[in-house]
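Changelog excerpt

This revision adds worked examples to the README so contributors can see how folded entries look when concatenated. The first example is reproduced verbatim below.
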Amino acid sequence: MAFQVRCFHDGQYIVNLNKGQCTCRKWNISGIPCSHSIACINDRNLDIYKYVNHWFHRDKYEKAYAPVVYGINGPELWKKIVHIPMEAPPFKVQCGRPKKLRRKEPDEYQLQNTTTKLKKTCVVIRCSNCGQARHNVKTCPYPRKEKAPTYVPIVSQTNTLHEPAEGPKSCCFRIQFSTKA
């Protein structure tokens, strides 16, 4: 006998009482009828216990537990054994250079052919000497420009700088410079 069972929340299932199968597969896997098959069995006024797998019947249960299983005493009542306590093996320094990185477990995820260094993409390097692209000062083919001489400001006797320069948006100070060091 095959039935089509519609559920409000699940959808619909096909139950075959002769084969003991339901499309939800709960009956097939466990051997105990699922809710869909129980609905079909109750609809036909049949005995539900006849559709349960024979491994769940009372006689199989009694045969499984017929031999007596005796309990054992707790660890406090176990026989004490005298032996030398186990110790860790002695530490031996291995020859060669020690490993820099830790050994990864086999189940750890590892990327293939990756580096930890980020690459510069879409960045044009410019030389600070000549201003051209694709090289720096060390590899510049032109002779290095001389740096402008550094000037040391002369501070007045009172150790204060001179007044600010005139102008509405000025943030500069007038400082006397000397080329003598």
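The second example, added in the same revision:
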Amino acid sequence: MSKEATPITVQVVTFNTTLPYKEVVARLEAELNKAESPDTFTRFLNAKSNKEWLSVLDKRAQGRDFQYFSELPYSKLMKYGDPEGQEKTGMIAYVFGNPVFAKEIIKHNPLAAYSIPPRFLVIEKPGGTTVTYHQPSSVMSEPQKKSESALMEAVTGLDEKLEKLAERITAV
């Protein structure tokens, strides 16, 4: 048996906006086509052929870069831990992605699968909302191989797409 620990520096990106929490959530859910995608991830996993897999991708994405997979409503978790039983702050982690991007990144770095799919944490704050995520190039690239151009091209491309998504949902 052996054990290895590799230190990495994670870039945590946070967008702050004065937009209300519910507005940011509504914008993100529209961008991810959530209403039409409640079972997208399961459909990907259950696809029996490349054609079926691509059909799920085309139907759910509808020209978007990302698709909704799931969400973790931490505000509800916090509600049950609160003696008063009230949701005091909105907090949801959205899990979304694009299997085409994921496949390309994992092909070059299988360990990137640990950080795929990406997530946005949306938190209600006094006077606005924050959207936070881990920058893909800081968690999906291999620390000792930052020079591998195909991998870096894929993860920096994902960096740009996530940044544009965050900008769209937080723009005032």
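Reviewer comment on example two: The first helix runs from residue 21 to 31. The first strand starts at residue 12 and ends at 17.
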